[in-house]
Design a protein that fits this description.
This protein has helices at about 25-35, 75-85, and strands at about 1-10, 10-20, 45, 50, 60-65. The chain is α+β, with helices and mostly antiparallel strands and about 90 residues long. It has a single domain, classed as Beta-grasp domain (Ubiquitin-like (UB roll), Roll), CATH 3.10.20. The protein is about 20% helix and about 30% strand.
Length: about 90
């Protein structure tokens, strides 16, 4: 089965497709891609749904490697709103 792995940084990303045996897990996909030792990764998701290392994968899944948030999304929005001039 084919699995797409995606990891992203600000303003760039890397995607890789690996071929795995049926019944493969997130950990198997990471090992096949050589991305198992990325210390910056804080979690995993399959099509945006949280996953763990022993989550089974299906053909065509997209495995996303997640990084910790740099700022709380609500705080980021408050800062952007504060920078905008008030409309008259």
């Amino acid at each position: 089965m084919k699995i797409e792995l995606v990891r992203a940084w600000p303003r760039r990303f890397e995607a890789l497709t690996v071929e795995l045996a049926d019944g493969a897990t997130v950990a198997d996909a990471l090992a096949a891609a050589g991305w198992g030792t990325d210390a910056e990764i804080s979690g995993y998701a399959v099509f945006g749904v949280k996953a763990v290392a022993d989550t089974p994968l299906r053909d065509g899944d997209r495995l996303e490697l997640l990084r910790p948030l740099q700022i709380d999304p609500k705080e980021a929005r408050r800062r952007r709103a504060a920078e905008r001039p008030l409309k008259k």
